[in-house]
Amino acid sequence: MRTVARSLLCLPFLLALLSLTACAPAPIYKATAQATVATPAQVAQSPERYAGGDVIWGGRIVQVNNLSDHSEVEMLAYPLDASQRPKASDSGNGRFIVVLPGYAEPLDYPAGALMTISGKLNGSRAGKVGEANYVFPLVAAAQSHVWTADEMNKGRNNIHFGLGVGVGIH
User: Which PANTHER family does this one have (predicted)?
Assistant: First the structure.
């Protein structure tokens, strides 16, 4: 009888926890069977090993360069959450360049914004980060999504559990 009572006491907590996890948005891109799970830093070490692989990567936009027939978006990579949003609070996983067809309006891809892309690895290019030499994996983008602040916060709860006394002013 005691275990039944204890189980009943835990039930509201478990239901609340389940409802909070159910609020997270679904991933925006579907992973393919040949998806590469390596980070940009790992791909930069041996790009030929991952050539042609599909990726879903995300991170923070560093800069946009418009060239005569395409645009390139330099990204600082971050791991993605279950909804494929970049986790900017984690440490970076290297840099990569997203290759977009045509002209990319820099106002649509502002420096500092968070973005997720799906695409295909298409080689690498030597370059520099500051004065340091760097190898950038190149990703031919199939799709890209720049996240808004509202989208980044969607599905994140404002409920915190803990012991103690606190005062919150909103």
Answer: OUTER MEMBRANE PROTEIN SLP (PTHR37530)
